[in-house]
Design a protein that fits this description.
Elements (H helix, E strand, L loop, with lengths): L1 E9 L10 H11 L3 E7 L8 E4 L10 E10 L11 E4 L12 H10 L3 E4 L27 E6 H6 L5 H9 L10 H12 L5 E8 L2 E3 L4 E3 L2 H4 L3 E7 L7 H13 L3 E5 L9 E5 L4 E3 L3 E2 L5 E17 L2 E16 L3 E11 L2 E8 L2 E3 L1
Parallel strand pairs: 1-2, 1-8, 2-4, 6-7, 7-8, 15-20
Antiparallel strand pairs: 1-11, 3-4, 4-5, 5-6, 9-10, 11-12, 12-19, 13-14, 13-16, 16-17, 16-18, 18-19, 18-20
Length: 357
Amino acid sequence: MHEIVVNLHMHTRYSDGSGTHKDIAEAAMKAGLDAVIVTDHNVLVQGVEGYYRSSPVPTLKPRRVLLLVGQEIHDQDRIPQKNHLLVLNANRDLSALADNPQTLINGVAEAGGLSFIAHPWDPEAPAFNETDISWETWDVQGYTGLELWNGLSELKTLVPTKLHGLFYAFFPQFIGHAPIRETLQKWDELLSEGKRLVAIGGSDAHAMHMGPFHRVIFPYDFHFRTVNTHVFIPQPLTGDVTADKKMIYEALANGHCFVGYDLPAPTRGFRFRAKGLEHSAIMGDELPAKGGVTLHVYAPFKADLTLFKDGVALGTWRNQQTLTHNTSEPGVYRVEAHRSYLGKKRGWIYSNPIYVR
């Protein structure tokens, strides 16, 4: 399998972002990403998907990034506007179905797309007149997964006053701590009920302007160095848009990915695998418990590695790069890695599960 770094959930001038698709592609190349997925609110922008390439510089290797387009759909007539859904790879605009989340999810499946609950817990930020826009309709079925870590939602938990907001505007590197606790708990709860739900990380990048001088706060290239989704595809990107798009979306559908906070240290190279008597598995796969299973974790740098089974921590391997655990117990196994950064222990890596049946 080949690892690529994807940033998803971002906005352009077509909704409430400040940049163009070209701006996003250039920022993504600057940040060293392999692909980006733009998801403007309730609009499916046509004609912009494809590979973008850097201007040729004789002394530098040419860069390219694959830009794909989805949607973030929600009912704009509802106040407050809850139940945002990220829709990827659908073959048509589905925003007309926004008033009923289950109908929308069904429509996404019929259109060959993937659906992820966006910022499941997104609290209010009264100092900035931001309302709570969390997901509420948890009885829905058939969606692909959820956005485990959303960079903008996390910011709302850190700004009780405008002064706090001003601090983070100038020092955004202090924002990232971990996914919102309620989102992690809900994911574990749903997994323990037998659901297979893929976790992704979203930047929710807008490149917002602030103040009379129109300073850009949290620019795209900053977001692209923070919360990313690392995706495992069967071969390197080919340069063919149709083939590469298919590989990326199939990998996301299967949970062959992890969420990495790449600012404290690059997470590229993380691996979580399982080996059974006759089968092997990577994140998103399942294998039988019969005969015993060995779970193996490798991190690109030393960290505190915690192994979870059905949402319960089995143990933490502190300041290690590897973790090995033998089990014969069925369950849903996932891994978290934490590292110290700017004086605090912060979430660094959140794997998708391996399902031992």
